[in-house]
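User: Hey, quick favor. My workstation is busy. Could you predict this chain's structure for me?
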Amino acid sequence: MSFSEAIKDGFDHYAKFDGRASRPSFWWWVLFVVIVSIVANIFDSAIDAPILSTIVGLGLLLPGLSKAIRRLHDTGRSGWWVLIGLIPLIGFIVLLIFYLEKSNPAENEYGPPPADAAPAVA
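Assistant: No problem, here it is.
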């Protein structure tokens, strides 16, 4: 999956919390969010008001949460695991490990593997 395809997928599934998202799709989305946030913060510091970064943060919250939950589904975990991120430091580390895991190549309770998932290696 390319960068632009991951962004399109993120907005196409704006509030879709079922299904699965592959590892490349998730990490391309994270890169997009980081870039947009940096640009918004630069703009806000130039005008000395946090207007754009607030709008960007609110606009990307739901698709980011959706992508994170679908990524957890791809590793065979419930989307409720995203709440472990509320635990300072440890929650972030646990979620990072989950997000870095390889995709489950077989169909699981959350659906078939994403079309862009890498094929299973024997």
